[in-house]
Amino acid sequence: MIDQINALLPQTQCGQCGFKGCHPYAQAIASGAADINQCPPGGDEGIIELAHLLGVNPKPLDTKFGHHKPKSVAFIVEEDCIGCAKCIAACPVDAILGAAKFMHTVIAAECTGCELCLAPCPVDCIIMKPAPVHKDKPSTLKFVQAQLAKRRYDARCLRKENENAEKAERARKQKEALAKMKSAIAQQQ
Prior knowledge:
Blueprint: H1 2-8, H2 22-31, H3 43-54, E1 72-76, H4 86-90, E2 96-97, E3 105-106, E4 126-130, H5 138-188
Antiparallel strand pairs: 1-4, 2-3
């Protein structure tokens, strides 16, 4: 059931629902810890889809979690970017390219419009622009975009998990080497 609920969510990973991403929100809905009307990016359409899946009545979006807005994407005003890389760290789908001390840019087709990059930017060089309108079937396109965002989010999570494991392994090896060095020094004395 969790996977079915998660498949209906927009995969923006914005946290507006009060959870750290769409999957934790899906888990909370499935367990009864959250209601179906906490996702502003999903809007009324998302609430109706969740209600249908769960066999409950739809209800209005709970505005304490925000208001539904048309889909937008982040845009970096490049001449104002200082290359701090804080936006890169905040992006849940790795849609921002750049390196420290160099200008950054957003891959608009990959941006979920979560707005998580806005707050960490120290120079406010990121703005939100309306997402391009596609003439394809909106529901089909929305599903394809959500699945792409989910794959990118999952890949980022896996990469971060691997980085943390490698960091822990390096720390363990350094600790072992330090212990050996201390032991060798103690034996010499």
